[in-house]
Specification:
Elements: H1 3-23, H2 32-38, H3 43-71, H4 73-93, H5 97-114, H6 117-128, H7 133-164, H8 167-177, H9 180-186, H10 201-213, H11 217-246, H12 251-270, H13 272-279, H14 281-301, H15 311-330, H16 338-366, H17 369-403
């Protein structure tokens, strides 16, 4: 590789990380439940907003990932960043349920365009620069670390601003920050790598599905875990904010608590590779699978403010689990399938969320938050034992085959 081209590609690493940081630097998220409540919504309607976001991503995720694999990842990133800025600007004027739906739809399109394309750019850039497998895994860990650091920074910024201003000023700050990712997306250079054949759309999609589902149990179960297990921790974000509000936690403290929890996720993601080396992939997978179940049951059973003490369990699981599963998926994929495959995993997660929101939202209107938490704890336990445990067994079986000298379709380590 020429030195000039290598230098240009190396700048991708910084651009993608900065884009990831500011994409999630959402000062409104730590106070989303109070913010939307101030605009007349209850928790069930807030979850319906998230369903609108999820359905948008569901519809746009796979086409956007396919476009990134077909026409280029930079194009997808720029279009996604543009939608992100537009969405945050809409929030300034949104005062009722349907205008907030428009805000969520714009963000959903943005997220669908960026997700998959950003990881594909990062991974393919590292491959082009000759980074080894450990370095690539640490690169994914650093990407998650910066995302979680962005969330933590947004929490602290929200806390500081709320000391002197109100929710409306927070929304104005969000509108300004929401345009920053566009500059970093424009700085990305398209990395080298295989692209899907133009015009052969059905063949291309069939190739991606075969790569995911017919290339060994580890890859197949990893893909399913990314979609299903991710949902387990996602509901905790909204239940925790409702729990804080029920306990009378001041809005300023919302931001501080969110920053601490995001920092927990950041550290867990940053050191996921180290944890995997210490515990082994199977043990680490089971830990991140069972932590959400413990958290939900504790949230349901502990009295009052004591339930706040379990919040870090969800975020530690999210941090380590995301990095381990993403690395396990991407190391087994061809470059030409990478963005589409990552989008399909997000598609699965968003589809499940959209399908389950009416159920959880309905239950929140007739059950207490503690009862809903207990139900989610049971679901998290079932996912851990029914999906992640078979993945661990597949990892161990693949490792045994390799130790006996048999050819393995994929590497065992997550």
């Amino acid at each position: 590789m020429e030195a000039q081209q290598g230098n240009r590609l190396a700048r991708n690493l910084g651009a993608i990380r900065a884009l990831a940081f500011f994409q999630v630097f959402m000062v409104v998220v730590p106070v989303a439940v109070p913010l939307f409540g101030d605009r007349g919504l209850d928790l069930a309607e807030i979850l319906q907003l998230q369903a609108a976001f999820g359905i948008t991503v569901l519809l746009a995720e796979v086409p956007s990932g396919y476009v990134a694999d077909l026409w280029g990842r930079r194009l997808a990133l720029v279009a996604g960043a543009l939608c992100l800025g537009i969405g945050h600007t809409i929030l300034v004027f949104a005062q009722d349920f349907w205008s907030l739906v428009l805000f969520e739809v714009a963000l959903g399109v943005a997220v669908s365009l960026i997700s998959g394309a950003d990881i594909a750019v990062l991974y393919d850039t590292q491959l082009a620069l000759g980074h080894d497998e450990t370095t690539r895994q640490r690169g994914l860990g650093q990407l998650f670390f910066l995302r979680a650091t962005g969330e933590a920074g947004a929490g602290l910024a929200a806390a500081v601003l709320l000391l002197f201003a109100g929710l409306n000023e927070l929304v104005l700050l969000q509108a300004i920050v929401g345009w920053l990712p566009l500059g970093f997306a424009l700085a990305v250079v398209e990395p080298p790598g295989e692209r899907l054949a133009a015009g052969a759309h059905l063949e291309n999609l069939g190739g991606v599905l075969r790569a995911l589902l017919a290339n060994g149990a580890v890859l197949r179960l990893t893909f399913l875990a990314l979609g299903v297990w991710s949902l387990v921790t996602y509901y905790a974000v909204w239940l925790l904010q409702q729990h804080w509000q029920d306990q009378g936690v001041p809005l300023v403290v919302f931001g501080i608590m969110w920053a601490v929890l995001a920092a927990v996720a950041a550290v867990a993601g940053r050191y996921a590779a180290t944890l995997e080396e210490i515990l082994g992939p199977g043990a680490l997978l089971m830990v991140v699978a069972l932590l959400p179940a413990v958290g939900y049951f504790a949230l349901a059973g502990l009295p009052g403010a004591a339930g706040l003490l379990v919040a870090p369990l969800f975020f530690a699981a999210r941090g380590a689990g995301f990095v381990v599963l993403q690395q396990a998926l991407n190391r087994r994929l061809d470059s030409r399938h990478r963005a589409t495959a990552n989008s399909l995993a997000s598609f699965l997660f968003r589809g499940l969320f959209a399908a389950t929101v009416p159920v959880i939202g309905g239950l929140l209107r007739v059950w207490s938050p503690a009862e809903v938490s207990a139900l989610l704890g049971a679901v998290a336990l079932a996912v851990g034992l029914g999906l992640v445990l078979p993945l661990v067994m597949a990892v161990q079986a693949d490792g045994l085959r390799r130790s006996e000298g048999e050819p393995a379709v994929q590497r065992a380590g997550a």
